[in-house]
Amino acid sequence: MKGFKRIASLLLVLLLSVNMGVAASACERPEAHTSDDCEPQVYALIADRDIEIGTVTITNDADNIYVKYEIDDASWNDGEGWALYETDVHVERRVELFPLTSKGKPRVVKFDYRETHEGIQLYEETIPLENDGNVLVAAHAEVKRVEESSVTIAPYGGDSATSKQGLAYDYDEVKAIRSTTDAALVLESENTSEESDFYSLGFRDEEQDDAWVIIEFDSPITNGDGDDIRLVEDTWTYGTSYPLEQAYVYVSEDGEEWLSLGIADNQEAGITGTNYHTIVDFDLDDVDLDSARFVKVVDASDRRDFDSAYNGYGHIADGYDLNVVLALHDYEDIEYEKADAWIEGCKFVEKGSWAMYVNYEICDSEAHADDDATGEGHGDDDIVDDQVPGGVPNDGDCDDDYDDHHDDAQGQDDCDDDQDQDGDHQGEDTSIEDETPPTSNGDSSSNDCDDILSIFRYFRARRATYFTNIYRSFWGWR
Predict the structure, then answer these.
(1) For the segment 304-315, what is each residue's pLDDT rounded down to a tens digit?
(2) Long-range contacts of range 30-36, CB-CB < 8 Å, 24 or more positions apart?
């Protein structure tokens, strides 16, 4: 009965090993450098799990490792396709040294080398080289591509307005026809004298916090070459002795924090062919803004300037008359598709994340030449490191790629296919590395369950030789 259990156990291990071998086949290490081959190592850059959008090239000299991201021309599409907006690189000797969550997923925000970009095609990160041998490189990027775009053609006005109107010169209410706030959203450029074409702010009473209007733009005013904002005011008797009307002008990105652009007035002739408009232009560079969504106009006219001209006609004097606020540059509204991208290699964990890293062997021609002669190199010429128990060469998978630098005396195997053997997702399994399958050898303290678990772990770490070692283990137990 005991022999039957062991045969059944071996068959179970065989099935599990075959399945795991298929799943891990994508995690093979790249071809290692040789003494005559120090070419850069090129890997695919994969976006959104399965879209190949470019390459990540890793190379080194005596001082640094270089990790170069490049979006291929087809994916770049002249800046309309995928582009780099963030790059994150981290280099370690073993997987468990990466900044990881409790489940073994990489914490990109903790990577050592992080840069933000404005939609570029190529970027190279330089990392100081600390020692030779194998290293693990995780290269992540945030990429975006244009999903939809539209352009608002300048000049254009705002989309909504709120206001608190002041009073007329005689402290009465401003005429109703001059009190429609939305009139300040549309430019009325015809040579006409319709009072409904503008909004009168009224004279300001500082104690009342009045005589203002706020214009909101759905398509923000952008900071382009030269001036960016124009205020158009109605003064129908321009060129005569009409009194000075003024307004303070403020801009904001959020409608909460306001920055002063200066003062607009009615002293400069505006639109060609009319006698009814004056204009003043402003530049967002003066307040160091890339864009503004809100413009606030507050009356700054002085009643005393109207005393002689409008004595007895105070009901038609009502402060700064705003026709419109205009944006002077086209606004392009772009909606992006955003995705994570990783260098194609070994997964940190099998489920819940597709984050990846690669094994990279530091290239040093002189060192490799010495290694060839001594057999103490990075693993390419070391027969012991490149074999599994029983003398069978390894399969080139990433779990065999640490050589004497990584498969240390503690038996750590840092490749993703050994993660979670002990439930900690950290890629450590101290019971399996560099050992042959355990056998009972007549030891009554061992049991079949321990044998199954140990064999399972062993063959998962050494997939390439499971047939040979199952056979040997089976006959060894007998």
Answers:
(1) 887 766 555 555
(2) 30/358, 30/359, 30/360, 32/361, 32/378, 32/379, 32/380, 33/361, 33/363, 33/368, 33/380, 34/368, 34/380, 35/365, 35/368, 35/369, 35/371, 35/372, 36/365
CA distance 254 to 220: 11
Please state the φ and ψ torsions of residue 403, each to the nearest 5 degrees: 55, -155
pLDDT at 5 over 80: no
Distances (CA, A) of 101 to 93, 105, 110, 318, 418: 18, 5, 11, 65, 17
CA distance 28 to 378: 17
Whether the predicted model's global pTM rises above the 0.70 cut: no
Q: What is the DSSP string of 77-144?
A: GGGTS-EEEEEEEEEESSGGGS-B-TTS-B-GGG-SEEEEEEEESEEEEEEE---SSEEEEEEEEEEE
Three-state DSSP class for 66? strand
pLDDT classification of 303: cutoffs 50, 70, 90: confident
- The per-residue pLDDT for 38 is 72
Mean of per-residue pLDDT scores for the chain: 75
Q: What angle do CA 168, 170, 172 make, to 5 degrees?
A: 60
CB 337, CB 145: distance < 8 Å: yes
Please state, in angstroms and as integers, the Cα–Cα distance from residue 90 to each residue in 40, 93, 227, following that order.
18, 10, 44
Query: Quick one: average pLDDT of 33-54?
Result: 83
Angle at CA of residue 355, ends 350 and 358, nearest 5°: 95
- Contact between residue 293 and residue 251 where contact means Cβ atoms under 8 Å apart: no
Kind of pairing between the strands at 41-47 and 331-343: antiparallel
Angle 402-408-410 (CA atoms, 0-180°, nearest 5)?
A: 130
* Cis upstream peptide for 128 (omega within 30°): no
- 205: which strand partners? none
Measured distance CA(177)–CA(182) in Å, rounded: 12
